Amino acid sequence: MKLQRVLQYAKFLLAESIEEGEIAVDATAGNGHDTLYLAEIVGENGHVYSFDIQQEAIDATTNRLIDHQLDKRATVILDGHQHVAKYVTETIAGAVFNLGYLPGANHEIITTGETTIQAIESLLSLLKLNGIIVLVIYHGHEGGKTERDAVLNYVSNLPQKYFQVLKYEFLNQKNDPPFIVAIEKTRKTHFDPK
Question: What PANTHER family does its record include (predicted)?
């Protein structure tokens, strides 16, 4: 057996939850790698909604999708992930977040605990039974530990009657390595759409 690196494991979890023809969300489009991966998983009849607050990320993601001829499978939205409910009303099979900042861009533009938790709450109500939300938490930057702590506090208090929450991390790596938090919905809640 070989332990999967953090990003490999995130992809594995998403692929286990999302089937062809379903809806997925990339809450932090970034350079478009996760949006592309989700577009491949959902197939021709599925769809991906991808969010970012930076035009640079929207352009990079759109171009990556066009380069792979998968732009018809995704809607790339210039808005914060906390507004996901304005754009997505269907049941989703999964969602992914890469918390932190856009690699290669302004490190002062970061995700925050407040908006991330708002997005998680919206996505949990849309999430199918046995669907999954994967958060890759980068916390080595300024503001990263504050967001990490807020998110961990929030997900640790989700009722186990409805959700399973997993933390996947390597304990002996230096320099604040990223880790995963995965939330699986195990039972319908009273917040779910009828």
Answer: S-ADENOSYL-L-METHIONINE-DEPENDENT METHYLTRANSFERASES SUPERFAMILY PROTEIN (PTHR35276), TRNA (MNM(5)S(2)U34)-METHYLTRANSFERASE, CHLOROPLASTIC (PTHR35276:SF1)
